[in-house]
Design goal:
By secondary structure, the chain is α+β, with helices and mostly antiparallel strands. It has 4 helices and 5 strands. It is globular, with a radius of gyration of 15 Å.
């Protein structure tokens, strides 16, 4: 199992941030099913101010660029993504073509001995 961390910002508007929270209290079941279908076993999103931090776990063979294409091919998942995009803004440091910016792991307690 591999773990991933990604970040993105929300538009700095309290009403939009509350709407984003509300959407995530009622994520469409087709979206969660599509995430599970591509191998994601655990996913959590945290919010501080306007910064979102997403942590997820997937099998060792998971390749985000490849496997998210399969997720996006699901019409309801694509519609969810289109609904969420106006709330979000890429962060400084995101690579070309990245929406959620991948973060580098710098410490793992389990590996620290």
């Amino acid at each position: 199992m591999k773990s991933y961390a990604q970040a993105i910002d929300l538009v700095d508007d309290p009403a939009l941030i509350e709407a984003y929270r509300a959407h995530h209290r009622a994520v469409w079941p087709e979206v969660t099913a599509a995430l599970r279908r591509i191998g994601i076993r655990r996913m959590k999103i945290y919010l501080l101010g306007t910064r979102l931090f997403m942590y997820f776990e997937a099998p060792d063979g998971f390749e985000p660029t490849r496997d998210y294409q399969s997720y996006a091919a699901n019409p309801r998942a694509a519609a969810w993504d289109a609904l969420m995009r106006p709330f979000q803004r890429r962060i400084a440091g995101a690579k070309e073509g990245e929406w959620w910016a991948s973060m580098e792991e710098v410490f793992d307690l389990e590996s620290a001995g």
